[in-house]
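To assess whether ligand presence alters the predicted conformation, the chain was also submitted together with fe (ii) ion. Input:
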Amino acid sequence: MPTADIGGPPSRRDQAWQLLTEWTKSESLRKHAMAVEVCVTACGEAEADRLELAGDERARLIELYSTTALLHDFDYERHPTREEHPFVGVRELERLGWPAEMRTAILGHAQYSGVPRVTHLDKTLFACDELAGFLTACALVKPTKAIADVEVAGVRKKMKDKAFARGVNREDVIQGVAELGVDLDAHIGFCLAAMKKRASELGL
Ligand SMILES: [Fe+2]
């Protein structure tokens, strides 16, 4: 979802989108990046409210959340192994001058990296990554394939169904929510609401 060209230098979000699409040709991986972005950005907005940030400070925080989420798996298509993902991508992000807070959060979202999740951004990315994928899967099995038709209770039921969306690690979702210090139903509801608001961009 590139933003309209209104002249001037490209935004950081546009730069992140360009980097993502340069490295990632898979439509489903791009959609995953967008779904995680939608959830993480909504959490960033709530955090900016909590911190009572305004103006540039608020915009910078939200941009950091949005770009971190967009880029968290950008190297995965080229470097899917545990030896390389997300380490190759993080080195490239450093070379390109993306901030340390972003790189630490991206390292932290891979449990096996050993990098602890300390900041709100670190914890948010981890708490939204698998969940965004799971919510997308819940939408795609609806006859309408619409996220609008997905409800929290149905998501909780599907989380117990081991045969459904096997690729999504439920333990990571539960651990992520616990680390973030929020209630599981509340976090699912919050991410669902964020995805519903931007359903057309997500093709859901
Ligand atoms: Fe991811």
